[in-house]
Specification:
The chain has 21 helices and 16 strands. By secondary structure, the chain is an alpha/beta fold. It has two domains: 156 residues, Alpha-Beta Plaits, CATH 3.30.70; 244 residues, EAL domain (TIM Barrel), CATH 3.20.20. Helix 20 links the parallel strand 15 and strand 16. Helix 1 runs antiparallel to helix 2, helix 6 runs antiparallel to helix 7 and helix 7 packs antiparallel against helix 8. The radius of gyration is 42 Å and the shape is elongated. Pfam families: EAL (PF00563), GGDEF (PF00990). This is EAL domain-containing protein.
Length: 559
């Protein structure tokens, strides 16, 4: 406003100066030409008239524009206070209608852009549900407003088998399925809405993850009822583009204040519980507990320690002898991984291999195992002991493009022929492996390596795949033979499995044989090789070499 007043004053001064100049000029000229004093009055009149004309001609439009521009400036400065609604000032609309229209249009576009940005920042574009940011803000507010002594519940929903839908039908169909899931969860939320209390929240966090927050509940039983409703809602088949889609959901449940007093703590607890539900096969819910918290803490600690275990040299290989039931000879050994943990002592694979598989650290551990086996076999070969050494291959290792070249190079550099190497694959990995990986495995077998399936009988075996695989040995899972001494049914099952394996032309190996009676039964059924405590427990290399050199005769007598 001050700038407008200054402009007005400047225009007035300029106009006055112009008028005075015009007056003086006119008076001088008139007197010079006429030289009549009586004309002075006429000159004064003429000069004043010129001054007035100049002032009116220049000051009025300039001051009007200045006032309009000043008013427009004031309107623009009001944006700092958040005013994007008021129209252009009336003086601008009157004196500069086109500018006023442009300003109003600009404000309208800015308001629309802000509203769109707000929607994108607060809502999921696929399902139109609140996104993670919006959910966190609203849930924080509702939790803070919850009455003392009132329980709140967080449900973390992760869809089962959703990736298969994306892979088979495409991401567009996957998005349609997410919308359908969101609608079913909306029904669950709507059915639990209380007109006298705050409305429950439903949000899509990311991918196939949803979350529900119930701010006021009376009991744990009510929470579990809600979780069961959500599981049933998602578990019903979906009709999508002529396909019947069955996905299901794994749901983790956390309750405030028992499992946390903040939304962050509740989400973390519900997430941990969800993973337990998924590990049980999915299609169910799991309530968070202190036991789950302890397991999760142990998993996190194990993951941290595993990242440095290889560099610190904390891993060791224990060797378990394999004996022929026909001759009693030691035919080889299986390398079993051990972790010499600096605090917990010697840890068995079951305590850390699942974590290593989940995090991908297993690939680095697998590289160490291969290098250690190559070095060990090289030393044995130099001493004239050409025993076969078996070790496990993780599915994660097979995902690496350079796995097979690196494996070959490791044994070649140590001068170890592949005829001394046995590669063991789990049954599930063998059934799901890609065709190009099968070709690589067949190449190793052609070069002399022995190929084995480990833990046979625990997964789903495709008989056609079993027949076509490059395969030498099949190792029965310990669960198959555990009861063969006491159970006729167990013996019938093992005999049927043995006949099946014989039908595909493979050697049969039994693991975890603990008694002589078990060994006798397995030999009668046609099992070729065994390993287990009945003959020897796993031992480190130095002990293994001493045992093998002193036990050949005893092993033959047992055989």
């Amino acid at each position: 406003m001050k700038e407008g007043s200054a402009q007005k004053l400047s225009n007035a001064l300029l106009s006055t100066a112009a008028g005075v100049a015009s007056f003086v000029f006119s008076l001088s000229v008139f007197l010079y030409i006429t030289e009549f004093d009586e004309k002075v009055a006429a000159s004064v009149v003429a000069g004043v008239f010129c001054l007035m004309v100049s002032y009116v001609a220049s000051e009025r439009p300039n001051s009007e524009s200045a006032r309009a521009l000043a008013a427009l400036g004031d309107r623009l400065m009001a944006i700092e206070d958040g005013d994007l609604v008021s129209p252009a000032p009336a003086i601008v609309q009157r004196t500069m209608p086109q500018l006023a229209g442009a300003v109003d249009t600009l404000f309208a576009e800015v308001r629309s852009s802000i509203e769109n940005a707000h929607a994108l920042g607060m809502y999921d574009p696929v399902t139109s549900l609140p996104n993670r940011l919006h959910f966190r803000a609203e849930a924080d507010r509702l939790l803070a407003e919850a009455p003392a002594g009132m329980a709140s519940a967080m449900l973390f929903v992760d869809l089962d088998r959703f990736k298969a839908v994306n892979d088979s039908l495409g991401h567009a169909r996957g998005d349609q399925l997410l919308v359908m899931v969101a609608n079913r969860l909306r029904v669950v939320v709507t059915g639990e809405s209380d007109t006298n209390g705050p409305r429950p929240l439903l949000a899509r966090l990311a991918g196939d993850e949803f979350t529900l927050f119930f701010p006021q509940l009376s009991a744990i039983s009510e929470v579990e009822r809600l979780a069961r409703r959500a599981v049933l809602a998602v578990g019903e088949p979906f009709e999508l583009s002529g396909h019947s889609i069955d996905i299901g959901a794994s749901i983790g449940v956390a309750v405030a204040p028992a499992h946390g007093n903040s939304i962050e703590a509740l989400m973390r607890a519900a997430d941990i519980a969800m993973y337990r539900a998924k590990s049980r096969g999915g299609g169910q819910h799991c309530l968070f507990s202190e036991e789950l918290a302890a397991e999760h803490h142990q998993k996190v600690e194990t993951e941290k320690a595993l990242t440095e275990a290889v560099q610190r040299g904390e891993f060791l290989l224990a060797l378990q002898p394999q004996l022929s039931l026909a001759t009693g000879e030691i035919t080889g050994a299986e390398a079993l991984l051990r972790w010499n943990h600096p605090r917990d002592g010697m840890r068995l694979p079951s305590s850390f291999i699942p974590v290593a598989e989940q995090t991908g650290i297993i690939a680095e551990i697998g590289d160490w195992v291969i290098a250690e086996c190559a070095s060990m076999l090289s030393a044995w070969r130099a001493e004239g002991q050409a025993r076969r050494l078996a070790f496990n291959i993780s599915p994660r290792q097979l995902d690496r493009q350079d796995f097979f070249p690196r494996l070959r190079a490791s044994f070649t550099e140590n001068g170890v022929p592949l005829s001394m190497v046995e590669l063991e694959f789990t049954e599930s990995a063998a059934m799901e492996v890609r065709e190009d990986v099968l070709d690589e495995i067949a190449g190793l077998r052609a070069e002399g390596a022995t190929i084995a399936i480990d833990d046979f009988g625990t997964g789903y075996s495709n008989i056609a795949r079993l027949r076509s695989m490059p395969l030498d040995r099949v190792k029965l899972d310990p669960s198959l033979i555990a009861d063969i001494e006491s159970s006729e049914q167990a013996r019938v099952v093992v005999q049927a499995v043995v006949e099946l394996i014989k039908g595909v032309g493979c050697e049969i190996v039994a693991e975890a044989v603990e008694t002589v009676a078990q060994a006798d039964l397995l030999r009668a059924m046609g099992v070729h090789t065994v390993q287990g405590f009945v003959f020897a427990q796993p031992m480190f290399e130095e002990e293994f070499l001493a045992w093998t050199s002193n036990s050949e005769r005893g092993a033959r007598s047992v055989g």
